[in-house]
Amino acid sequence: MFLDKNPEQLSEVFISNLLPTNRGFNYYVDWSNIAGYKDLMVEIHAIDVLIGITNEESFRERFNKLLQRLPTTISLFPLLFGLAKAERKSLKNSKNTLLIIQDEIDSNDHLEYAFALQSNTLTKEQIDYYYDFFVNIGLKELYQNIIEKSTLDYVIGVLVGLDSNGRKNRGGMAFELACQPIFEKVCRKYGLSLLIQKKFKILRTKGFEISKDIENRKADFIVFNEHQRKAINFEVNFYNGTGSKPEEIIDSYINRQSDLIKLGLEFSLVTDGRCWQKASNQLNKGFRHLHYLENFYMFKHGMLEEIVKKVFNIQHCND
């Protein structure tokens, strides 16, 4: 269907079916990230005893009792003030501490807080230290005047908000996220293996010969058959036009293909976006020199399967 067309025909199909966006549903929130609270359910429910206590003395007394009876409550604190996932994980695994700079002249330059419990109890001095943290970072105000019913609802909201904001960091991966389910479906159908965002050197563990020139390059997707010792690297990119240089894009992937072919590996570029509307010469160059070039429409509507069947010599498949 697609592989039978000549470069000019493929270019016409490509230009006629460009995407206006690279964002699928899975771009906005990665719901698997929101599960970070589940091993703290006891602490989450226990800390609800602080909700709505406006009397200062009563609040302090209840805070002290909470940490005396359930000192692991301190491990919940990093979830309550919107700390990034990587930093929360580092604190949880005792790989790091939270450092807070102090601006008072008569104080230490910084304070240091650990949230992974080192013993089964907290001393009075330690509880006082964590109470000062709770007050100064604003969590006391949160429990006295903001949260009305449930810490759990609040924590889930924090995690969803963090992940939604983190989509900026996933922006470059948005098109990959949209393509990934299609890769997975085709690989399941044809019994192939799939690597995502891995360095080429991982193929050595599968019996492939990988040169030092490319061993540390990262591939977006690698589809391979360990028994056949065959593999194809798919690079997936979306260019909306701003700052993109089509000639550099195409040339870099022609070079990538050349390097892989020397090792007996194949290459395909999956690219899309309005950048290509004004880059017909470079697009035609890509269709002339790259073995497999496709946009999302072509990729989704059969070209991925055609490429896979050709590369891995698949004659038929029972759906």
Describe, in plain words, how this protein is organized in 3D:
- The chain has 319 residues and is of the alpha/beta class.
- The protein is 44% helix and 13% strand.
- The protein has 13 helices and seven strands.
- The protein has helices at 7-16, 25-28, 41-46, 56-69, 77-80, 85-92, 124-136, 139-146, 151-165, 174-190, 246-261, 280-289, 296-311; strands spanning 98-101, 110-113, 193-199, 218-225, 230-238, 266-272, 293-294.
- The chain has a five-stranded mixed beta sheet with strand order 3-4-5-6-7, sandwiched between helices.
- Strand 6, helix 12 and strand 7 form a beta-alpha-beta unit.
- The model has no long low-confidence stretch (mean pLDDT 89).
Question: Which terms would index this structure?
Answer:
319 residues; alpha/beta; 5-stranded mixed sheet
Summarize the entry for a quick read.
The protein is of the alpha/beta class and 319 residues long. It has 13 helices and 7 strands.
Report the helical percentage: 40-55%
Reading the helices and strands in chain order gives HHHHHHEEHHHHEEEHEHEH
- Percentage of residues in strands: 5-15%
Major pleated sheet: 5 strands, mixed
Content-based structural category: alpha/beta
Low-confidence stretches are: none
The largest beta-sheet arranges its strands as 3-4-5-6-7
What Rg, in angstroms, do the CA atoms define? 27 Å
Q: How many helix segments?
A: 13
Shape descriptor reads elongated
Number of strands: 7
Mean pLDDT: 89
| Distance between the amino and carboxyl termini | 18 Å
Draw up the topology in text:
Blueprint: H1 7-16, H2 25-28, H3 41-46, H4 56-69, H5 77-80, H6 85-92, E1 98-101, E2 110-113, H7 124-136, H8 139-146, H9 151-165, H10 174-190, E3 193-199, E4 218-225, E5 230-238, H11 246-261, E6 266-272, H12 280-289, E7 293-294, H13 296-311
Helix pairs in contact: 1-12, 4-7, 10-13, 11-12
